[in-house]
Design goal:
229 residues, alpha+beta, three-stranded antiparallel beta sheet, two-stranded antiparallel sheet, 7 strands, globular, disordered N terminus
């Protein structure tokens, strides 16, 4: 399987407990900066209020600046003194177990999650190769959306739903508990939605299905397509 390319970005600064609104160009894959072997917080490719009303400013600031920052801090602490002390994030997710794996998985998940969104997607539907693969697997984009929403709504507890490319080059929808990620299966994660309540509860309360329907409006499929093998 092709290794995910982890690009380098500037650190998202915290201001007043929240993330400073540094606006940069949308990124295409998981963004991790390594400074003196430390994994740091991904910089958002949009202002924290840019995804509203689909995802509110308050949710983005808490989700990115508090939850994700906590996972990043935990990974850097937990990997010290282990064989993963200088490893890249994907390697840690693939090889580690327990608390280190859970936190590293959440960092990788969130890096892909936050960088797939745009307030003005370049492509608001799949095109080209990605469109063809979706049509081959589900018949149409609309049928894929139905399958994705139904699967996401069915997850009991917390976790993620992913569209991935498997080791045969085919697309798969899969549910992952906790901080799990498709790279553990040897797959390439293309587009994922966070099903932990902290990702949507302030905006949708217990209506996870409504959240899943709304996020289509902010997914930039040009970013997702660049993650294909």
């Amino acid at each position: 399987m092709k290794r995910l390319h982890i690009a380098m970005l500037g650190l998202g600064l915290l201001a007043g407990g929240f993330v400073a609104e540094a606006v940069i160009k949308p990124q295409t894959v998981a963004q991790v900066q390594t400074t003196a072997n430390a994994i740091t917080l991904v910089t958002l490719p949009y202002a924290t209020d840019a995804l509203a009303p689909v995802i509110s400013k308050q949710t983005v600031e808490l989700h990115h600046g508090k939850h994700l920052q906590g996972y990043v801090n935990n990974v850097n602490k937990l990997r010290q003194g282990t064989k993963w002390a200088n490893a890249d994030l994907e390697t840690i997710v693939k090889e580690s177990e327990g608390t280190l794996f859970n936190n590293a998985g959440q960092v990788l998940n969130h890096n892909l999650y936050f960088t797939q969104f745009s307030p003005k997607p370049k492509h608001n539907k799949p095109e080209g190769k990605l469109q063809r693969l979706i049509a081959m697997r589900w018949g149409s984009y609309a049928k894929f959306q139905e399958a994705f929403e139904a699967e996401g709504a069915s997850l009991f507890g917390s976790g993620w739903i992913w569209l991935s490319q498997d080791d045969k080059g085919e697309l798969q929808i899969s549910l992952h508990a906790g901080g799990d990620n498709p790279v553990r299966r040897g797959w390439i994660p293309l587009m994922g939605i966070d099903l932990w309540e902290h990702a949507y509860y302030l905006d949708y309360q217990n209506k996870r299905a409504d959240h899943l329907k709304a996020v289509w409006n902010i997914i930039d499929w040009s970013v997702v397509a660049k993650r294909l093998r």
